Amino acid sequence: MLAKRIIPCLDVKDGTTVKGVNFVNFRNAGDPVELGQKYSRDGADELVFLDITASHEGRKTFVDLVKRIAQNISIPFTVGGGINDVTDVDRLLSAGADKISINSAALRNPDLIDGIARNFGNQVCVTAIDARFDNGEWICYINGGRIPTSRRLIDWAYEAQERGAGEILFTSMDHDGVKTGFACEALAMLSDKLSIPIIASGGAGDYSHFYDVFTQGKADAALAASIFHFNEIPIDKLKDYLNNNGINVRL
Hints:
The chain has eleven helices and twelve strands. By secondary structure, the chain is α/β, with parallel strands linked by helices.
């Protein structure tokens, strides 16, 4: 069985790492280059960088910052935010990204997934989905969780897979920053429906939440931000806990 992955996430706004609750009320969490360096040193399996206002502000991701982070880490690096076409992908891969995360742009133009997979390979394309449980259904949102769409989580995730996405990064907006656990039921549904890896995001607050997301939620990887940024859960201790509880992780 493949090892489960622990992935810190750098949500970056105006060049600074921030963290909010339910996608609002952001507070400063530190320098993204220093944090990336720390996580690489501390045993994180991958690092995700999301320029969280790029799409909403209609601009490109900060390439220079991506380059500086890439130069200071030795783990796989996923970058998202403001990516609208394959030239943006090429630019970020050249800056040091290993994978590209697309969210709003993919929902607006699903052919973008096909283009990335065709030009760079499925393994480069991570389709990120921000969804909220509305009236009994998981509904996808765009522009950093600001605008609801007509797409349902399971349907869109399956389409993304069929178009060539190599992974799905699902963030539950209801669970984001609340620290009460991941959306395990929705994650398990995704895992049962899809054949590509599922990265869980939103809700980590305790060691047991990671155990639950890998067992009940059937996730392949778990992403978190504030608990790592503010040293609430050290990555090495988390991996020891998971290993001691029968979860296969890289130590």
